[in-house]
Specification:
The structure holds two protein chains of two kinds. In chain A, about 75% of the residues lie in helices and about 0% in strands. Chain B is α+β, with helices and mostly antiparallel strands. Chain B is about 25% helix and about 35% strand. The mean pLDDT of chain B is about 85. Classes of the chains: A mainly alpha, B alpha+beta. Chains A and B meet through helix 7 and helix 8 of A and strand 7 of B.
């Protein structure tokens, strides 16, 4: 009985796990297109205020996570600038919901996505893009058929990084959407909660091991996808025959 | 017909210089020839639309592609100009077939002047179609790149040192394909190179570019005698071009019997003939002979293996730093040869303008070019 209790997840823990996966998945999903767009912009274009945009995108990486969380609360909270407008116009409330958790982790994961995409796109040989254009392809067609497929390994890396970052997101989430069981209590928040209650150590440990397994799995899947994508674009993988 | 009048302040690793090119190109193949960094590739990039000129205008077949005053700069993908690059630039994530079809599929069917199967056949690509670019040799890559550009049915084909990254053996394998394209497809070509033998296999129409300017423009035989071109060409390997009349072919012995004026000339059979690219050998043949491979003699020489001994008259002597270039007119013709010899031998043999001299040419140093 005691042994079973040690290894079996309680319904609340299963819920935290499920919620974490859902939040991380949506997080990667919603930053995919904007991340590629901003990464492309920073890799390919020079424009006025580029370094400001660059810094702004990277800000969540260097700020204490509680700061973006608080800013989100000010903007999107039910009393916030955008939040109150959303509430009045559409009856939508983001703060203290799982959607808010997605938004919080998306903000935190965005710079990681942008960095990967930017690097991947800047490494695509611009000579190939020029060649495609000389064959009569419109620049957008070139982007879809040449740039994007060749940058795919980096884009996948960015998405997995964002997914993983979201799984581990704590500070911004707890500040913006709180720690509501079944709604916003993701794995890190659940671990934190168990460490705060007497006798919660075993449950916390179970979730810690689970978190590590998920993170490890995500990294291995990322590695595999990256290798496949690299082979597909005819490039050797990490020092193999090129 | 391509009408070029383009200017650009050009910055590259050789330093800044201004590019100012004015010319009219109206030959099936025109070679842009000149030393590295002279602006040849920049000029091609401006024609292709990859580089925007500072000023001037560009017309291809009467259509304006660039005019700084009218603010016209047609984007690359609307120019219908094929471009073959030195580094082939095949798309690594497509196989050969999809590389070839990339541009082909973008043009409407009625504009597809060249059938896919025809290009595949012409460039002998059928056995490569399912391969990925990284599986191809350098020569195969360039053939695919050439085919890919041709399949867009371009009105002009730009070739930017397409053979520069290949070794001599591969060059010899690709040149026949370029000749086939020239002879069979009727697409005007601008061919950039700094290897004169390569250029002369395709065309005699050259534009010599140095320091961003056109130094000379016209048939190679004529422009080579300009003082500046001579000096420049000498640093790049000076070649003579001669026209000879074919008398007969000795397959067994491996040479063609020909005559210039009434003098015999023995020309070795080229790779083309040996490998079955047999253009019918009759009429005239064009050959190239490196100036450094011509020896001079006051009298005809007997008892040597050199078969070609052409009587000629010295018409000019040009003293360069270490070498002397002697221009000779072949007996009973207007054709000229340039021989590169040492200043000492000119003195020893007492060669002066008007001297009667025999040009000694080893058969193997005569390279047959396209049969004219």
């Amino acid at each position: 009985m005691a042994i079973e209790n040690t290894f079996l997840l309680s319904p609340a823990e299963v819920e935290a796990l499920w919620l974490s996966a859902k939040v991380a998945f949506y997080c990667a999903w919603i930053i995919c297109i904007p991340g590629i767009a901003v990464g492309w912009l920073l890799a390919k274009k020079s424009f006025f205020g580029k370094s400001f945009v660059d810094s702004l995108v990277h800000l969540p990486l260097v700020l204490p996570p509680v700061v973006p969380g608080f800013i989100l609360l000010l903007l999107l909270g039910s009393q916030g600038l955008i939040g109150s407008w959303l509430q009045q116009s559409f009856g939508i409330s983001i703060a203290f919901t799982w959607i808010g958790a997605v938004v919080a982790s998306a903000v935190m994961a965005f710079p990681l996505m942008v960095r990967s995409v930017r690097l991947a796109i800047s490494q695509v040989d611009s000579g190939l893009e020029a060649a495609a254009q000389s064959l009569g392809a419109h620049p957008f067609k070139v982007f879809i058929t040449i740039t994007l497929p060749l940058a795919l390994p980096g884009i996948i890396t960015g998405l997995i990084l964002a997914f993983s970052r979201s799984l581990g997101e704590f500070g911004a989430t707890i500040t913006f959407v709180g720690n509501i069981e079944g709604e916003t209590r993701t794995l890190p928040l659940a671990i934190y909660t168990y460490t705060q209650i007497p006798g919660g150590d075993i449950a916390a440990l179970r979730l810690v091991v689970l978190s590590m397994l998920i993170a490890l799995g995500a990294l291995m899947i990322s590695d595999m996808l990256e290798r496949k994508a690299s082979q597909r674009i005819g490039r050797g993988y990490k020092g193999q025959k090129s | 017909m391509i009408n070029i009048d383009l200017q650009k302040i050009h910055k590259n690793s050789y330093g800044d210089f201004s590019l100012d090119i004015k010319c009219k190109i109206d030959a099936p193949v025109t070679a842009l020839f000149g030393p590295s960094g002279a602006g040849k590739s920049t000029l091609l990039s401006m024609i292709a639309g990859l580089v925007k000129p500072d000023s001037g205008c560009l017309y291809v077949d009467g259509e304006c592609l660039f005019d700084s005053q009218r603010g016209i700069h047609v984007p690359i993908h609307k120019r219908h100009i094929g471009h073959v690059f030195q580094d082939s630039r095949l798309f690594p994530h497509f196989n050969v077939e999809n590389n070839l079809k990339y541009g082909y599929q973008l043009i409407p069917a009625k504009s597809q002047r060249l059938a896919f199967s025809k290009i595949v056949e012409l460039l002998e690509l059928s056995h490569l179609l399912t391969q990925r670019p990284h599986q191809l040799s350098g020569g195969e890559k360039q053939r695919v790149a050439l085919g890919r550009a041709l399949l867009t049915s371009p009105r002009l084909l730009l070739l930017d040192e397409p053979l520069a990254s290949l070794d001599m053996r591969l060059k010899q394998q690709i040149l026949p394909f370029l000749l086939r394209v020239k002879n069979e497809l009727n697409i005007p070509m601008i061919y950039v190179s700094h290897a004169i033998d390569e250029v002369l296999s395709l065309t005699s129409q050259v534009a010599i570019i140095e320091q961003g300017k056109i130094l000379a423009f016209g048939p190679f035989n004529e422009v080579i005698h300009h003082q500046q071109v001579l000096v420049l060409a000498h640093t790049l390997g000076l070649e003579n071009i001669l026209q000879a009349e074919i008398l007969g072919k000795e397959i067994e012995a491996g040479y063609i019997r020909a005559s210039i004026g009434d003098q015999a000339l023995y020309i070795p059979l080229s790779n083309q003939e040996l490998h079955g690219f047999s253009d019918n050998i009759s009429g005239n043949i064009t050959v190239s002979i490196a100036a450094s491979n011509i020896a001079l003699s006051v009298n005809p020489v007997s008892g040597v293996t050199i078969q070609n001994q052409l009587a000629s008259t010295v018409t000019n002597i040009e003293q360069l730093v270490h070498r002397t270039l002697v221009t000779l007119t072949l007996k009973n013709t207007s054709q000229q040869l340039i021989a590169e010899v040492t200043a000492k031998s000119v003195q020893d043999l007492q060669i002066s303008i008007g001297s009667k001299i025999y040009c000694l040419i080893k058969t193997q140093s005569i390279h047959p070019l396209a049969s004219a």
